[in-house]
Design brief:
The structure is a homodimer. By secondary structure, chain A is mainly alpha-helical. Chain A is 68% helix and 7% strand. Chain A contains 7 helices and 3 strands. In chain A, helix 2 (27-51) packs across helix 6 (122-142). The longest helix of chain A is centred in the first third of the chain and has 25 residues, at 27-51. The N and C termini of chain A lie far apart (42 Å). At the A-B interface, helix 1, helix 2, helix 3, helix 6 and helix 7 of A face helix 1, helix 2, helix 3, helix 6 and helix 7 of B. The structure holds a DNA duplex.
DNA sequence: CTAAGTTAATTCATTAGTGAACTATGCATT
DNA sequence: AATGCATAGTTCACTAATGAATTAACTTAG
């Protein structure tokens, strides 16, 4: 990494050259889409660098954070799947590793015996409180040079993009 | 998928709740970072849906596109690694699958015998020209409702973000 | 009450991608 | 020419995530 700007230059050049041989190429949109892919990967990479000392990856961290922020500290695998856009298969693995590390517990639900109750442990809460503050400087750096207005605008545009992306897989027919 | 908006709502709620117990949480930045992760994943998912009928994933497609847009249709694995931010290991795999499908050729370089010359084939070019146009409507949908000004702004903000992310892994010390 | 359908979670096989170690070539210095 | 160092590409072992099939438990319609 540490060369996103260079990648964007290469995208610009590539799109430009493809444009010469492919008519109607929506070059602005193609470039934006590539930059969004790149930004997402860059943010994830930066985040995971910060998480690495604690041997958690992004999806494990996210899962732990949801349990942390849940009012009672409880949830279930399927709920966590919804929240994290992970498949059930992967969530099984994630929760197993978190259990193994003593950050959460799993026990069968009494109301619905298909379900599994997951709960964050005291140790899990402690880890979250320890991990969060060191992430803040990264976030600040990431958006350094962004005015309040820039941030609001980016927020607005990303929400609109999300709405549009949702359309795609919702066949309107 | 098809629920990015829902995920963003959950992020909003989660960040709000974490804010109550963690002082100094930069909630706006945290939300933006999560939305960028989500957007990147959403764009990739949408793109890969479109690529699937041709049994290519994003990194294979990207690799093929670079060879397509290269003036002479030539490149080398290490160059492709730079362009795609893929590791050399993975590029070995990617080029092997593209060769197997007859979309590119590989032959040892004469100038430098460590190198491998990769070249897109006529069949590879044909596939690219066939695949591109069906992607355009998706790109249009993705940015529907975006004014020219919105697109310019998003472009500008993402470039700035990329610059900031590059800082992170470049220890200024 | 029971048959059919749905949901929750898991297992297994497979795909993608990474890091470390290795081979071979080229390059620079003496 | 011999030594040391850097680069290009590969292999191998491993991690992360997905899709298909499976098991068990709940739900609903007849």
């Amino acid at each position: 990494m540490a060369k996103l700007k260079r990648c964007i230059e290469l995208i610009d050049e590539g799109v430009q050259r493809v444009r010469e041989s492919v008519i109607d190429l929506p070059s602005r949109e193609a470039t934006l889409a590539r930059m969004l892919l790149l930004s997402g990967d860059g943010v994830r990479h930066s985040l995971e660098q910060s998480l690495k000392p604690n041997r958690l990856n992004d999806s494990e961290f996210q899962t732990l954070m949801i349990l942390y922020s849940s009012p009672d500290g409880f949830s279930t695998p399927s709920e966590l799947c919804d929240y994290t856009s992970q498949g059930a298969t992967n969530m099984t693995r994630i929760t197993h590793t978190l259990v193994k590390r003593g950050l959460i517990t799993r026990q069968p639900s009494h109301e619905d015996r298909r379900r599994v109750q997951l709960q964050i442990t005291a140790s899990g809460r402690r880890l979250v409180r320890k991990m969060l503050p060191p992430l803040f400087p990264n976030l600040a750096l990431m958006f350094s040079g962004f005015s309040d207005n820039d941030k609001r605008t980016l927020d607005r545009l990303l929400r609109r993009l999300a709405g549009n992306l949702d359309q795609r897989d919702t066949p309107t027919s």
